[in-house]
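dumping this here before i forget
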Amino acid sequence: MGARSDGVSDGATHQLGHRERLRDRARAGGLAALPDYELLELYLFRTFARGDVKPLAKALLTRFGTFAAVLAASRDELRTVAGIGEAAAIDLKLLHEAALRAGRDAFAHRPVISSWSALLGYVRVALANEPREQFRVLFLDKKNQLIADEVLNHGTVDHAPVYPREVMRRALELSSSNLILLHNHPSGDPTPSRPDIDMTKQIVEAGKALKITVHDHLVVGREGVASFKALGLF
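structure:
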């Protein structure tokens, strides 16, 4: 046992059969029917031309918790999983970037405030699984169409310092008339903190002096998205 007369090992033959069976299941039932580990396994086939990648897919999910968290992990974090090298890490980040761009395209060419469900889907992909706080701003024009989506600061696990003057300076550089503020809570709970509320008030006041409107501040966590406007916080 172990090798056939054609030089192909029994193990290799088994893996070829397994890969084809998984592809057949995807074709028959659709990708949505696959559990997370099999969807990840199917994607890893593209990086690893041969071999059993099921343990690797399961190790990634064990390490990061969810499919979305695997894609949101940094290249360095991904490489802490045995078997994930630079090529696999880049391929996984490619999938994450594709999801981000597809989500952004859903509202990029029309008024953002009329595409709210698409925006919420995008911010969840972009921020819900970030391990550190990240503060970013959607800069909008007079018609509320997206000019730029920019990260203005990275922070720690519970704080990302933001300076209202920096937000306004960048808005003026981009000729942006309207803003939507975004940041995440790595704890998972999107409930705004007192520092979040105070900082938002400062940015709103700074904008008034320059006739720049802050439409909302969205706080993103794994448990959901909190809207300052919906909560009546400004």
